[in-house]
Write a structure and sequence with these properties.
The protein is of the alpha/beta class. The protein has helices at residues 9-19, 33-36, 48-59, 83-89, 92-95, 107-124, 136-151, 164-174, 194-200, 223-231, 332-369, 393-402, 432-447; strands at 128-129, 155-159, 180-184, 205-212, 235-240, 258-262, 278-282, 294-299, 305-311, 375-377, 384-388, 409-410, 421-425. The protein starts with 8 loop residues before the first helix and ends with a helix.
């Protein structure tokens, strides 16, 4: 878009003539006179030192994670971030790097993206991964569109236990495209209702889309879901929590065709919702339909190893009708944080984090389930679980906050049938003392009803 501003008399006359106006004042006649030149009641100017003090005071009003035990997850998780992650991504050559169009001057950035892709493949058990999506939500949306291109079908069967915000983004991406999106509910164990899924899947279905572990925290076997999808020629698209893959079988070993996910848990703090990084991987045979970019390894004229943008199927580079996506960039800096985090943690470190999340969450869940008036719902889970509360979830959260504890996610917002339930999250960052404090607070809340 042009930023041209008429700044000469001739320019202004030409503009007014084109608009059919006699004066500049006529441009503003649609604005009420009392609103045209508002008086701003601004405070007096402050020095830099005073501004910093003001902002520090405002920041201290927040319930930050450094001083408040947090049991809120729902897609944004409080995990440990090694100090080296911030050190690496703050280096000038990475922090200010832009799109690596010229490989001869971008080997550092291309190398880190290549390593990121490799690690995503190893985590998910898939053949190929791209250079990242914006976040988990856009990864889910792009997976739906990709499945439609692969199968030449326009129906999606989406689990209601897929993140509610991700489902909203999927519907936004596909509106106006004639896509038929149907939601399949969950069973008593919190997993996909297999019978209902079997009824909804048909000849027009491009993909069955699920989450692992799902939004309610439940773990389920993906193999039966893969078999249901493949039976009608559809793909299985799975949205994952990458930390869980340090402990459980990757989707690629359970029949998944496309695997996406939110990479925030790998080296990035919750950060008020972003910037995050989307994971996207698939089977080799679907490579040509994958969105975004892919960095590949090659050799130069002297036989030395080098990295290039091998695959760029976006509309800025090729004809729009041939493009797979209009995503115009990738979250390379956050992807670098994820790659650095995974390199530092290693296979054993990631497994240890996953084990801590699993055991601490089960310790908390067992303790809550033993409290009068509380009940844990559903079956196997990883680090999040659903509890039914004796008073309204909003009241529980408010009373927890009075005790300096950040409570859980109120499921009534997205699941009316779970209006009396909270989704609680426990990670390796929650100490036994914090969990015990939560149990004591919930006991007091239950006793006072």
């Amino acid at each position: 878009m042009s930023s041209y501003i008429p700044n000469t008399d001739a320019d202004r006359r030409e503009m007014l003539e084109t608009l059919g106006l006699d004066s500049l004042q006529e441009l503003f006649e649609a604005i009420p006179p009392e609103k045209r030149y508002p008086h701003l009641d601004l405070p007096p100017p402050l020095s830099e030192m005073e501004v910093k003090e003001l902002l520090r005071g405002l920041a201290e009003k927040n319930a930050d994670l450094d001083h408040h035990p947090c049991f809120l997850g729902a897609g944004a998780y409080h995990h440990f971030v090694p100090a080296v992650v911030d050190h690496i991504i703050s280096r000038g050559e990475f922090y200010t790097a832009y799109t690596p169009y010229q490989p001869e001057v971008s080997q550092g950035t291309l190398t880190t993206i290549y390593e990121f892709q490799t690690m995503v493949c190893q985590l998910t058990g898939m053949d190929v991964a791209n250079a990242s999506m914006y976040d988990g939500a856009t990864g889910v949306a792009e997976a739906g569109l990709m499945a439609a291109r692969v199968t030449r079908r326009y129906g999606l069967v989406v689990a209601s236990t897929l993140h509610p915000r991700y489902r909203q983004v999927l519907r936004t991406y596909t509106q106006g495209m004639g896509m038929d999106i149907q939601e399949v509910g969950y069973g008593e164990d919190g997993g996909v209702d297999l019978r209902q899924a079997d009824q909804l899947l048909g000849a027009g279905t491009a993909a069955l889309m699920v989450q692992y572990p799902n939004f309610l925290g439940s773990l389920e076997d993906l193999q039966p879901l893969s078999e249901l999808a493949n039976r009608v020629g559809a793909l299985l698209a799975v949205c994952v929590d990458p930390v869980a893959l340090g402990l459980f079988r990757p989707p690629g070993e359970q029949g998944a065709d496309i695997v996406v996910g939110e990479g925030q848990s790998l080296g990035s703090p919750p950060s008020y919702g972003g910037p995050y990084v989307g994971l996207f991987a698939c089977r080799q045979k679907y490579l040509r339909q994958m969105p975004g970019r892919l960095v590949g390894m090659t050799t130069d004229t002297d036989g030395r190893r080098g990295f290039v943008l091998t695959f760029q199927p976006r509309e800025q580079h090729i004809r729009r009708e041939k493009a797979t996506s209009n995503i115009c960039t990738n979250e390379a800096l956050v992807a670098l944080a994820a790659a650095t985090h995974l390199a530092i943690m290693g296979k054993q470190g990631l497994r240890q984090v996953a084990e801590l999340c699993y055991h601490k969450a089960h310790y908390a869940a067992d303790g809550i389930d033993a409290l009068p008036g509380y009940e844990r719902l559903f079956g196997q889970f990883f680090k999040e679980f659903v509890i039914r509360t004796p008073v309204s979830p909003a009241t529980v959260n408010a009373l927890l906050m009075e005790r300096g504890i950040i409570g859980g996610y109120r499921l009534e917002r997205d699941y009316p049938q779970l209006g009396d339930c909270l989704l609680l999250c426990v990670t390796e960052m929650n100490t036994k003392e914090e969990i015990d404090s939560l149990l004591e607070a919930l006991r007091e809340i239950g006793d006072s009803r």
